[in-house]
Amino acid sequence: MAGNNWNTNQPSPPGSGYTYVQGLGFVPYGPANKERAALVACANAVGLAVLLYLFLSSVTPSYLVGFMRLFMPHLRYFNSHLMAPEWVGQLIQALSFVICSVVAFGIYMALIRIPARVALPLRRAPGVIAAPAVFIGLAVSALGSFAANLLSMVFGWFGAIPVTPDISVSTTASGLVWALVNVCLLPAFLEECIYRGVLMQSLRRFGDGFALVISAVLFSLMHRNVLQAPIALLMGLVIGYFVLRTGSLWTGVLMHFCNNLLAVTQQVVTPMLEPEQGRMLGTILVLFYLVMGLVSILVLSRSGVNLFHLNQSPSALPVRQRAKLFFTCPAMVIALVLIIWLARGSVQFLPR
Predict the structure, then answer these.
(1) Ramachandran category for residue 305: left, alpha or beta (phi over 0 → left; psi -120 to 50 → alpha)
(2) Residue 51 pLDDT > 90, yes or no?
(3) CA torsion angle 143 147 152 154 (round to 10)
(4) pLDDT at residue 189 in the model
(5) Long-range contact list for 188-193, CB < 8 A, 24+ apart?
(6) Terminus-to-terminus CA distance in the chain, angstroms?
(7) How far apart are CA 257 and CA 244, in angstroms?
(8) Given phi > 0 = left and psi -120 to 50 = alpha, else beta, which region is 225?
(9) In degrees rounded to 5, what are phi and psi of residue 78?
(10) Does 141 or 21 have the greater pLDDT score?
(11) What DSSP string describes 32-85?
(12) Cα(309)–Cα(297) distance, rounded to whole angstroms?
């Protein structure tokens, strides 16, 4: 894919030459054909990266345990559970996440030949937009929780119970540190680098709106959980939007980190309270997020920031056709089938 134009502010020059079409012979190879070929190649590369990430996620922890047994012979598995000190399990989780992310999406960057400075726009984020964006993100997360609860109720009508992964946070000093690393810091930085960085920036050639929606959908699907999907989708859209508006990945990292940090804090504090107090705390926080989100929108509106505008990139293909081409490429189809297969465990059916 040499010759890709990675300057997202400038349209690619029209294609030249001819290509053979069955029944028509040699016809001009125009912009539409060039964009279609580039999109198909990019989508297949994304699908391969997702498949590689899922494969590495399944085997890397075992290899890390095997390596650590050279220094800690007592490590072993019992009923698929690692018998080891807490810090060992947390360290393996952190290393596995880093290795899978860097290898899979590093190879994707090499396949499509996107420069690191384009894939990872780590310029300074403007505080006048980034600060209100944090509260807007928290409000959207609260709305996503409402959507997840509604979805859970709908599943219940059909005798199914969606479940979320059990992320227990130890209240020991080391447990809180590892929660900060594995739940807040690493996901905030690496997931933003992957979804709002490498993936979204590489798709901007096909339109900013297209790149925003596709990266948010992939972010949602890769959670592989029915209840987390609507929250991740909404958060992916709002975080990606503010990354595009500020031109900085740090905006997304800040929004992602604050959301995860407050969720972990609530998870640690709530068990210390009476059940009624815990419910009251949750209600107060939701109302606070919604109010502050609304205030932040008003502040940005009064500051002259056009909240509902994205740069329009010229495209020779309609949006529906671009989406169809992306999600029907062979590698993407295989990746989607595997994600759905893995997500089946997030729904349990009641016995009849």
Answers:
(1) beta
(2) yes
(3) 150
(4) 97
(5) 188/253, 188/254, 188/256, 188/257, 188/260, 189/253, 189/257, 190/97, 190/98, 190/101, 191/219, 191/256, 192/239, 192/243, 192/249, 192/252, 192/253, 192/256, 193/101, 193/105, 193/120, 193/249
(6) 54
(7) 18
(8) beta
(9) -135, 115
(10) 141
(11) HHHHHHHHHHHHHHHHHHHHHHHHHHHHHHHHHHHHHTTT-TT-EEETTEEES-
(12) 14
- Per the structure block, which two tokens stand in for 245? 């508006």
Q: Collapse the DSSP code of 285 into the 3-class scheme (helix H, G, I; strand E, B; otherwise coil) and give the result.
A: helix
Q: SS3 for 28?
A: strand
Can you state the angle between helices 275-302 and 127-157, rounded to 10 degrees?
130
Over residues 56-91, the pLDDT tens digits come to 999 999 999 989 888 888 887 776 778 878 888 899
Ramachandran region of residue 304, left (φ > 0), alpha (ψ -120 to 50) or beta?
left
pLDDT tier, 237 (very low <50, low <70, confident <90, very high otherwise): very high
18, β-bridge pairs: 28
Dihedral sign from CA coordinates of 43, 222, 161, 79: positive
Which residue is it, tokens 């939701």?
286
Q: Which band of pLDDT confidence, cut at 50, 70 and 90, is reported for residue 348?
A: confident
- Lowest model confidence (mean pLDDT) among 3-17, 103-117, 314-328, 330-344: 3-17
Residue 251 has φ and ψ, to the nearest 5°, of -60, -45
Contact 282, 290 (CB under 8 A): no
The residues that bridge with 21 in the sheet, in sequence order, are 25
Per residue in 259-294, pLDDT tens?
999 999 988 888 888 989 989 999 999 999 999 999
Alpha helical stretches, state H, the chain: 31-68, 86-112, 116-119, 127-157, 173-179, 186, 200-203, 208-221, 228-246, 249-269, 275-302, 319-327, 330-343
Band of the pLDDT at 174, cuts 50, 70, 90? Answer: confident
Kindly give, in sequence order, each residue whose CB lies less than 8 Å from that of residue 261, ignoring residues fewer than 6 positions away.
Answer: 180, 184
pLDDT of 4 strictly over 70:
no
Contact assessment for residue 100 and residue 190, using Cβ atoms and an 8 Å cutoff: no
pTM above 0.85, yes or no: yes
